[in-house]
């Protein structure tokens, strides 16, 4: 027996809302990752990278690194390159940080000397719904990041399991 379409209206609304969610995962620093800049000329490399991207609430930052850490700190701690009580700390080498509010976020390395050498970053998160901008270098398309030559999707669109579930349930109700 088919379910009347009117009974599917609430589910259809959920489908539209979930499909409208558009969050992006940004790999901090691009293919080089969260590393100490090699030269003093590159001391602003993370802030330059951040300036090329548009961040919004629910986006995630992926910090990839070896033998290091990442901390979210206050503006004062960012300027001093030191924090005894970071707002966020991780040292697992593959840190995902979810942006949960608009405004400025300040990040530094927790390893002594790394922040002073340029391993720090400020991101600005927009207060409005924004379409994410692709990560372009010098106006060219993103380059492949993997050794196999296959381009990685950065920033990548994220479709959650709940979105897939809602979509499947909606279409099943239409045809059952």
UniProtKB/TrEMBL annotation:
GO cellular component, one term: side of membrane
Localization per Swiss-Prot or TrEMBL: Cell membrane
PROSITE patterns from the UniProt entry: PHYTOCYANIN
Pfam families hit by this protein: Cu_bind_like
First and last residue of the signal peptide: 1-23
Source taxon at top rank: Eukaryota
InterPro entries: Cupredoxin (IPR008972), ENL_dom (IPR041846), Phytocyanin-like (IPR039391), Phytocyanin_dom (IPR003245)
Residue ranges constituting the Phytocyanin domain according to the UniProt record: 24-127
Membrane topology: Lipid-anchor; GPI-anchor
UniProt keyword terms in alphabetical order: Cell membrane, Disulfide bond, Glycoprotein, GPI-anchor, Lipoprotein, Membrane, Signal
GO molecular function: electron transfer activity
Family, per entry: Belongs to the early nodulin-like (ENODL) family.
Annotated PANTHER family: BLUE COPPER PROTEIN, EARLY NODULIN-LIKE PROTEIN 5-RELATED
Name this protein carries in UniProt: Cupredoxin
Species per Swiss-Prot/TrEMBL record: Vigna unguiculata (Cowpea)
């Amino acid at each position: 027996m088919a379910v009347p379409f009117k009974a599917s209206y609430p589910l259809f609304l959920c489908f539209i809302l979930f499909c409208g969610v558009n969050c992006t995962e940004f790999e901090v620093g691009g293919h080089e990752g969260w590393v100490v800049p090699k030269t003093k000329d590159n001391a602003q490399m993370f802030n330059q990278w951040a300036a090329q991207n548009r961040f919004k609430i629910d986006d995630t930052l992926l910090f990839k690194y070896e033998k290091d850490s990442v901390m979210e700190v206050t503006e004062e701690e960012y300027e001093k390159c030191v924090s005894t009580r970071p707002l966020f700390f991780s040292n697992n080498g593959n840190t995902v940080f979810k942006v949960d509010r608009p405004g400025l976020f300040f990040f530094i390395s927790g390893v002594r000397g790394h922040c002073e050498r340029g391993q720090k970053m400020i991101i600005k998160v927009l207060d409005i719904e924004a379409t994410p901008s692709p990560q372009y270098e010098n106006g060219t398309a993103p380059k492949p990041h993997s050794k196999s030559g296959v381009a990685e999707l950065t920033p990548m669109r994220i479709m959650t399991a709940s979105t897939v579930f809602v979509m499947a349930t909606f279409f099943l109700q239409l045809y059952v």
